[in-house]
Amino acid sequence: MSGHPLDRPVWNMLGGGQAALAVRHGSAVRIDPAYGPFAAARELSDAAQADLAAMVSRSMGALWLVEPDEWPAPRGTRVVRTAPLVQMVARSPAPDPGGDDIVPLGEADAAQMAALAHATEPGPWGTSTHRYGPFHGIRADGRLIAMAGTRMRPAPGYAEVSGVCTDPAARGRGYAGRLIRRVMAGMCAEGLTPFLHSYAGNTAAIALYRSLGFEIRREMMVTILAAD
After folding, report:
1. Does domain 5-85+223-227 sit in CATH 3.40.630.30?
2. How far is CA 139 from the centre of its chain?
3. Contact 10, 40 (CB under 8 A)
4. 91: which residues sit within 8 A by CB, 6+ positions away?
């Protein structure tokens, strides 16, 4: 299974620049559970599927596979959910908006970042997700109300915008767009091309991403596996 590195972002991130986060079992790999539930198998062979099944654990929850197509459930597992995605790439990102209200986030902000992520569900969030890469946020009265950051780096030259979320009471103020532009500016300063994933049915989010310079590269699919 070959092609463009973004076609298999999880497999390539855990076999490349983020290999230090990988937990391996034969021909299958998952990210350290503290960072999230992402996993991948080398291919669809019986052996690779068996290795993937061995990594599905009731105690650690379901595994998320992000692939061009729905991934079939290995024996001993079941598909909990599938959802179509679009993968978008920004070849000409919108410029950094500036503004002193956008601040870098770090270890001291981990609890507030987790609370915001769990309240808004921008995607899987674990106890170490905030450590993926640079995150930026906006506060009001000392409380974190919006953030965006970086997650997958599947190949040299690419970085994923992720963790974009805004407190429901603070939506409609343009925070998400400004934060994404700040994250993209940091990526571009490193010579990286920003990309992201969105649920295909989230037309409002896709419209926002287009306004920031993203274009759809291809359709993808997330398959969520759990123990049978």
Report:
1. yes
2. 23
3. yes
4. 193, 213, 215
Q: Name every residue whose Cβ is closer than 8 Å to that of residue 59 and which is 6 or more positions away in sequence.
A: none
pLDDT tens sequence across 110-123: 999 999 999 999 98
The tokens describing 221, both together, are 């699919």
Check if the beta carbon of residue 125 is closer than 8 Å to that of residue 140.
no
| Cβ–Cβ < 8 Å for 86, 220 | yes
Q: Are 106 and 128 in contact (CB under 8 A)?
A: no
The domains spanning 5-85+223-227 and 88-219 adopt the same CATH topology:
yes
- Domains of the chain, by residue range, sit at 5-85+223-227, 88-219
Q: How far is CA 171 from CA 34, 77, 144, 158, in A?
A: 29, 39, 13, 29
Q: Answer positive or negative: Cα dihedral of 86, 63, 20, 118.
A: positive
| pLDDT band, very low/low/confident/very high, at 97 (cuts 50, 70, 90) | confident
CATH assignment of 88-219? 3.40.630.30
List pLDDT tens digits, range 148-183. Answer: 999 999 999 999 999 999 999 999 999 999 999 999
How many whole angstroms separate alpha carbon 217 and alpha carbon 6? 9
The fraction of the chain above a pLDDT of 90, given in percent, is 91
Pairing relationship of beta strands 193-199 and 158-166 according to DSSP bridges:
parallel
> 222 has which bridge partners?
66, 83
| Whether 26 contacts 51, CB under 8 Å | yes
Rounded Cα distance between 131 and 125, Å, is: 11
